[in-house]
Structures are given as structure tokens and as C-alpha cells.
Amino acid sequence: MTIEIDVLVLGGAGVDTIVHVPELPVPYADSHMIRPGIVTRAGQSGDFVALAAHALGLRTHHLDLLGDDPEGDLVRALHRDRGIPLTAVPQPLGTKRAVNLVDPDGRRLSLYDATRAADTDRLPEATVRDLAAVSRHAHVVITQPCAHALPVLRAAGVTISTDLHDWDGVNPYHEPFAHQADVVFLSSAALADPEATMRRIAGRGRARAVVATAGADGAYLLADGELTHVPAATPPAPVVDSNGAGDAFAAAFLHAWLAGAPPRDCALHGTVAGAYACTVPSTRTDSIGREELAAGVAALLTGG
Hints:
- By secondary structure, the protein is α/β, with parallel strands linked by helices.
- It is globular, with a radius of gyration of 18 Å.
- The chain has 9 helices and 13 strands.
- It has one domain (5-302): 3-Layer(aba) Sandwich (UDP-N-acetylmuramoyl-L-alanine:D-glutamate ligase).
- It comes from Streptomyces levis.
């Protein structure tokens, strides 16, 4: 069967409402005057990975549950406008949504609406199987119900990546994703001992590369049993929001990884893309392109 998709993204389609706050945690007050305003736009983790992969020239397809609601219409319009194929499975509970509180330094606190998913939610196995059959790779977001699609993806023979985000290394919900993926991304923010968690993921699962992002400190890469530090890239403009930085990192890493680059080079691609994402206001969904990504990686390698 002919391969038609480079990266199949499962899950993580939704809508965020961005609220700029004076600081985090938000000081208690009867009211706050919000500038530059409150904006609702399509774009959660799976959307951002799909957009970033597409911007880097990867043939991308997104699969998730969506409601027949205004939020679902925003997600459909985003994919249609960017030219990214989307398979939307009906979700009677509605499209995923969240409120993101963003402080002046770009830090974010996300409040997710837990009423828009159920334990019984499933992506149709036949749909997952058919899309996986024409895909090189699947990036699986940890949103419900993607864990149930992992055995189908494994049977199809595609490689798998996932992002555990701010996993504490203990919550069992994340373990099926961590142990079934070939490439595992996570944040070091909630980890008491990032190296121990990374080695446990590799030892108990099948990951060939585990990457723990560390914000301005860059990232840590575990590959072939060796842990290395990957330096942070200098953002090309002032940092305004960290939202989507991890998704951009993952997409750029996969861009290099699918091209056969060694893991450290892949991680350098990730740091450049993540730094770029921090310069994009949370009200927009811009992604770094191939030429700018290549220039940023070259600058890191030469110390420029």
C-alpha cells in the first residue's frame, strides 16, 4: 500500500480561550482589567503538532473526536484553512476546550473542561487501522481515548511518539503511552529526578529516544543508554508565551528523526522550534518553517 501520510496525529483537537492575567497565581480581586483582551481560538496539543509538522513539509493527517458545536467548527476551519486533512469522529459531549491563563512572562496555567470526554470514548478501530496503514509514523496525544488506539497502531507497524507533558512519573494514566512509544517527550517540570524517570521509561517500554524538555535550560536526551544535555536555542524575538513550545519541539524532532538524523541532531531541531514557538502570541498559531529551522540549527552547531 502506498504511504500517503508522514505523521498521523491522534487526539488533542480543541479550542483554547486565552486570558492574560497580571501574574500567576492570579491575585484575588473582585475584578481585573484584561489587556490585550480575551481571545478564543482553535488549537490544542494535537492541533499544534499537526500544524507544526505540516509547516515543516511533512504530510500530516489529524484524527480526533469533535463535537457538532462552535468549538468544533473552529477546529475544522483551522485545518481547512491550513490545508491539513482532518478526520473528525462525532463527539456527543462536545469539542475539547480549555481556558489558558497567561502571565506577562509567558507562563501558562490551563484549565481543562473535563465534561467533554468520557471513559467510554473510542476512536473507531477501523478508521485508525486504515489511516495507520498508509502512514509512516503516528504521534499520539495523551487525551482520551487515544490509549486504546495504541495496540492498533503497533499492529499496523508504524512507529509511535507521544508527549507526556508535565507527568510526575507516578500517575498510571500516562504509562501506556510512555511504554508503547518509540519516541517519548515529556517536561522535566514535575520530575524530582528526570534521569531516573527517563531511564525507567526506556527500561520498561520500547522507547529508542526519551526527551525531557527543561525550558530555558534546553532539554535532556536519553538515547542508546546515554544521557546528554541539549542546549537551549536563543529565541529569535522576545518571549511572549510558552504555549505550544513542547508541541513545536516534538514536531521538529520528528521532522529530523523521520529524515534519518541522529537523536541529538533531532533534539537540536526541537530546541530551535520550541524557542521560536515561545515568541508567538498565544492568540496565534504560527509555526517555524524548514528554512528558518535549518538556519537555527546551523547557528547552534557553529555557536553563532
